[in-house]
TrEMBL record:
Protein name: Deoxyribodipyrimidine photo-lyase
Family classification: Belongs to the DNA photolyase family.
Enzyme Commission no: 4.1.99.3
Site residues by UniProt (Electron transfer via tryptophanyl radical): 308, 361, 384
Photolyase/cryptochrome alpha/beta domain span: 7-136
Catalytic reaction list: cyclobutadipyrimidine (in DNA) = 2 pyrimidine residues (in DNA)
Amino acid sequence: MTRKATAPTVVLFRRDLRVDDNAALAAAAHRGTAVMALYILDEETKDVRAMGAASRWWLHHSLATLGKRLGHAGANLYLARGRTGEVVAKAIAASGADCVFWNRRYDPSEAAVDASLKAGLREKGLTARSFDGALLHEPSLLKTGSGGFYKVYTPFRKAMADKTDIRDPIDPPGSIDGWRGEFAGLRLDDLDLLPTKPDWAQGLRESWTPGEEGGQARLHGFIENDLADYERQRDIPGVQATSRLSPHLAFGEITPFQIFACLRKSKSAGASKFRSEIGWREFSYHLLFHNPDLAGRNFRPEFDAMSWRDDPRALQAWQRGLTGYPIVDAGMRELWRTGWMHNRVRMIAASFLIKDLMIDWRHGEKWFWDTLVDADAANNPASWQWVAGSGADAAPYFRIFNPVLQGEKFDPQGEYVRRHIPEIGALPDRYIHRPWEAPASSLEGKNIKLGKSYPRPIVDHGAARDRALIVYQSIKGEK
Ligand code: FAD
């Protein structure tokens, strides 16, 4: 005879701020005892990277939405701040729980916190269980023929497709018997996640609807309106052709299982490309799982010998969108205003910082970490290292984006640049990506004063390219 469980279950929420397809929550509800839903803002555990400012803004709104959704289903969302292990111990003491469930995290520093939590709980005779949800594949299980991890995307993707069963999304619990006792938790405002002085989040508020419903609306809107043209249009920053699901994925408001389930019937080139991009996210996590310090250390050690330039003024000009190269500046301003930047422009802006300015990719990675609403522990460093050439399956070192040609190719009418740099909006298409070449007659009466209303280029791309090639060749030993 099985004994019926009676003590409550604590369910930890982290970057899985959803009710649908939430394996840990579903298992807790299924257990049939009261559920204590708990979010812990853990900024104290050593080695766990603190969230950037834009992510904190997102987190605030996502928690508010999750709290409402759980409330409708019957459960309180308790909020707390502190070390995960200590807060969980207090939650157990308050609720009398004998069981703690959570969905797995794959950032090694966070996974280590969870591993020690699991061991500690089990030592006390409590049940601790973790579930999947964030990734289609388990990085610890997918191995190359020689037992290592994958360093190149195409074989990784093939192995993932061959060896990973993509399950259906898990239904949300119909109702939850929420534990409603006393716990010394915090109110959402007490977590201090929002910017106040100054409140720079206006552009974020205008651009996003954080939370599970916002993520579902994005997914379905994208599939209906943009998926068919995704492959053709995804590189054009002036049109909205990509899903913009990245912050929803980063906060676990939507899962790759849900996305794949919605795409299951679609055989179009757009759907196939889109699946492949989600596959890049899996690959980034695979790399991070096996290379814990992906944000701090070159994946290819020969890059440790690189002589980066120390140029705070150039770094600041890049951060503020004042390099004089319109496509780079438009991207950096889109980032600052909305917390997001189009992928093509991320590549161009990153290449400019690394190869034109010869500034260490880690400075760029940090800036993105602070300013992106989709700042992601795996995608961000893996992408920066990819552009730098120091990463796995990285762009070849001699690929140095020309910001003018990239602008002309992907934003031919300058729609994107005009949206983000209105002060040069009146330039004819011909000069919109090379304002410094515009003859005086093109500037006349348009209130454009190069060097005053918009900067002249802070470096000459041709000379910068030559400099970068010399430095890169020196570390490759290919003179
Ligand atoms: P879509 O084109 O609609 O793609 C769907 C999803 O696939 C994305 O949401 C994302 O989860 C995944 N994806 C798409 N492209 C990539 C890629 N190249 N690598 C990994 N996953 C991808 N993405 C982040 O989610 N967080 C980051 O912090 C991040 N930093 C980046 C930094 C640099 C320098 C570069 C070049 C890229 C970075 N990316 C990052 C990858 C990519 O730019 C974004 O995922 C994408 O622009 C998000 O927009 P979307 O959701 O509309 O993408």
